[in-house]
Amino acid sequence: MVAYQQSDQQAASALVAQVSPPIFQFFLAQSRNRAEAEDLLQDFWLRIHKARATFRPGEPLLPWLYAIARRVRVDHYRKTKGVREHEIVSEQLPEKAAQDSARPAGPKMADLLKSLPESQREVLLLLKVSGMSLEEVARATGVSIGSVKQKAHRAYESLRKRLGTKP
Amino acid sequence: MNDEITGMFVEGDPPDAATLEKIAARISASAKPVRALPSNLTLWAISFGIFIALALLVAKVVHFKAIGVLSDRQMGVYYGILLLFGALFSRAVIERMIPGAKRVVPSTVLSIAALVVLGILVAVLFADHSTENFVARGMPCLRLGVISALLSGFLGWRLLQRGYLVSPRETITLYGFFAGLVGVSVLALHCPILNSLHVLVWHVGAMVLAGLAGFFLGSYAD
């Protein structure tokens, strides 16, 4: 990251290659399809580039990255809210079916995740997909560690109920 | 059970290699070396320094008339509280300029606490509650408070532009209250009227107005 700030092109390429997959998963889990997640990923990198001076060496990188990724997702959600509301159901079904056939292992979890409230889903994704610690998630989402714990706990409870398993 | 849920998060498809190459090429093409922002402590010192310098500078221009009429106890408590909130607002604003920074000071609690504490403090410190020439004597104070807040807002905007706001509405609202606090501080140094209702409505009112302006600007930017 420090080399990228010094405009090292190789460092920029390495950073993109290293950081993009988990960020892409973060977007994919909350998007309608791959194309949308890739658009979000491109927007994310443009903003990272613009905000690169705000990363200070020695500070944790993940909360910085995911705080910006969250902002990208929120902006995109707001921008496409009107479109989503006017979409007819028949347009969504083939998309979902295509996604299901392409990713046999994912859909069940994706469906379960989509049933969770947005804030809980986000916390669970950051903890489990991105592998961040409670403190890192708290920093990325701008809330307290206690609030992160509570959201994660509620998300687990909700998933347990849906899966029909006991704690 | 948690392990079972964790195990369900399988590694998904990676992004398209072509997309990654495109991104890397795009950001490399426009890359210029940048200097990372200084530490939170330095940024806090700059922000707090602007708060103090601006309050003193504007008060110097319009004269420190309040200092002659306030008792030592009133000055100590009133200015002490203003400095404390100035320090806390500086810290809170800095925390929100940096994505993923650790947040120690909650913005909503701070803004409400500042208004409540100032309200109680003013009621306790200034015994006069008369309303003679209330509006005529108050409007110049409100005007000065708002002008000071605008000056602070302009300088603050320059500072905020150095960072990246992940929650513009929250940050700009917070900065609005902070700018309003500069206005309250200027009036605390300048205004010789020691009337609790006057200070509450026309001095602290400038802070409320600046906070509301921040909220609307922030909502627009968000």
What would you say this structure looks like, in words?
The complex is a heterodimer of chains A (167) and B (222). Chain A has 167 residues and is mostly helical. Chain A has two domains: 1-88, Rna Polymerase Sigma Factor, Chain: A (Orthogonal Bundle), CATH 1.10.1740; 104-167, Arc Repressor Mutant, subunit A (Orthogonal Bundle), CATH 1.10.10. Chain A is 77% helix and 0% strand. Chain A is built from nine helices and no strands. In chain A, helix 7 (118-129) packs across helix 9 (145-163). The longest helix of chain A has 26 residues, at 61-86. Chain A starts with a helix and ends with a helix. With 222 residues, chain B is an all-alpha fold. Chain B folds into two domains: 1-32, no CATH class; 40-221. In chain B, helix 3 (40-62) packs across helix 5, helix 5 runs antiparallel to helix 8 and helix 6 (107-125) runs antiparallel to helix 9 (196-221). Chain B is elongated and about 75 Å long. Chain B starts with a helix and ends with a helix. In chain B, 40% of the residues are buried. The chains are: A mainly alpha (167), B mainly alpha (222). At the A-B interface, helix 1, helix 2, helix 3, helix 4 and helix 6 of A face helix 1 and helix 2 of B.
Layout of helices and strands, plus pairs?
The complex is a heterodimer of chains A (167) and B (222).
Chain A: H1 2-5, H2 9-28, H3 34-51, H4 61-86, H5 89-102, H6 107-114, H7 118-129, H8 134-141, H9 145-163
Helix pairs in contact in A: 2-3, 3-4, 4-8, 7-9, 8-9
Chain B: H1 2-8, H2 17-29, H3 40-62, H4 65-69, H5 72-97, H6 107-125, H7 134-160, H8 168-190, H9 196-221
Helix pairs in contact in B: 3-5, 3-7, 3-8, 5-6, 5-8, 6-9, 7-8, 7-9, 8-9
Question: Average pLDDT of chain B, to the nearest integer?
Answer: 90
CATH structural class of the largest domain in chain A: Mainly Alpha
Number of helices of chain B: 9
User: How far apart, in Å, are the first and last alpha carbons of chain B?
Assistant: 39 Å
**CATH architecture assignment of the largest domain in chain A:** Orthogonal Bundle
Low-confidence stretches of chain A: 90-107
Q: Radius of gyration of chain A over alpha carbons?
A: 17 Å
Number of domain modules of chain B: 2
Helix count of chain A?
A: 9
What's the count of strands of chain B? 0
What separation lies between the terminal Cα atoms of chain A? 41 Å
Following the backbone from N to C, one meets helices and strands of chain A in this order, namely HHHHHHHHH
Major β-sheet profile of chain A? none
| Oligomer type | heterodimer
Helical proportion of chain A, percent range: over 70%
Overall shape of chain B: elongated
Number of domains of chain A: 2
Largest interface: A-B, 65 and 43 residues
In terms of per-residue confidence, which ranges of chain B show pLDDT below 50 for 5 or more consecutive residues?
none
Helix content of chain B: over 70%
